[in-house]
Design brief:
This protein is of the alpha/beta class. It is built from six helices and nine strands, in the order ααβαβαββαβββαββ.
Length: 204
């Protein structure tokens, strides 16, 4: 099954509150974005956003240049319905982050919660990093969350790659400098604990 078909099936067969990665609010992501890019004119790209409420919270915080990207149209439709009239204030993109067309050096923030760890092929990781480097402006930031070294080995029926701060930094290469990182334990709707790494990088 192709990646887009897999994730469409996930979002069409389960409530957004039932998926293991569900969290009512991405507090850590919001706090970090507000800390490093407080201007409401900050251009933010949320990669693999799914039906996350981060876009809701960013709008409430006053950010006006938001782009939300996901491979599953059903996930974005869920967010648009939730936002109602406010959905028109957001640029919605359906596509695979590895090959979707993104404006060059446009974004100040690249946010990814739990896409990168699904890239088990080294070539796909290289394509991801190239896309990120091309889309971020110099001096911009990438905020990436992956499963940590003690996180799950699989998610949603798919294998994942686990990272610590050093191994993730090595994957991103010299175009990105590690600024800070932290470990978080996410509790799934079923009550399981998942270790996440949250890492902030600056684009050269």
């Amino acid at each position: 099954m192709q990646a887009d078909q897999h994730w469409e099936q996930v979002y069409r067969s389960r409530s957004t509150r039932e998926v293991s990665w569900y969290r009512a609010h991405l507090e850590r992501s919001l706090e970090t974005i507000r800390r490093v890019a407080p201007s409401p004119n900050t251009a933010i790209l949320d990669v693999g956003a799914g039906a996350s409420t981060l876009v809701d919270d960013l709008l409430s915080a006053g950010y006006t240049r938001l782009t939300v990207l996901d491979i599953a149209a059903a996930a974005l439709e869920s967010s648009r319905v939730r936002l109602g009239a406010k959905a028109t204030e957001v640029n919605w993109l359906v596509g695979n982050v590895l090959d979707v067309a993104l404006p060059a050096h446009h974004f100040d923030i690249w946010h990814d919660r739990a896409v990168f760890h699904f890239l088990t092929d080294a070539g796909d990781r290289q394509r991801y990093v190239a896309q990120m480097a091309a889309a971020l402006r110099p001096g911009g930031h990438a905020l990436i969350a992956t499963f940590g070294p003690e996180g799950p080995l699989r998610c949603s029926g798919l294998p994942v790659v686990r990272y610590d701060a050093q191994s993730l930094s090595k994957e991103l290469g010299k175009a990105f400098t590690l600024v800070d990182w932290t470990i978080e334990h996410h509790e799934t709707p079923a009550g399981a604990q998942q270790q996440f790494l949250h890492a902030l990088f600056a684009a050269e």
